[in-house]
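Kindly inspect what follows.
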Amino acid sequence: MPLSEIIDRYTITLLKSERTDEAVKDELSAYKDEIEKYKTSEHEETIESFITRLYEVNGQMWDSEGDIRSGADLPLEEVGRLALECRDINCIRNGIKAEIVDTFSEGFKEIQVNYKKVDYGRPE
């Protein structure tokens, strides 16, 4: 598994360990062990930065998706707003993962399709 996926899954699992009662200690440890293999004096700071950034963006995604999944009776307009927010957060997430791919020359970048931007009434 490429480092970009390992770090992504590690940060999601870390969030899961902090925000749920699910037992993920072994999974978290396995990802951490894999990350340690990449930590050289040259890359340690860079890897820690990627972990911090993906942890933050995956936390934002967790919060936004949680609002949709909460089961609350949200108006469709609010569900749509949250879905667009999730899309935007995921673009940032994919950008960070692409930086990891570039830095370590392994893995695959998400193919980004640029569509004409449409204003759905969201503030810029």
Residues 3-104 form one domain. The longest helix spans residues 76-104. The mean pLDDT is 87. Residues 64 and 82 are 6 Å apart (CA to CA).
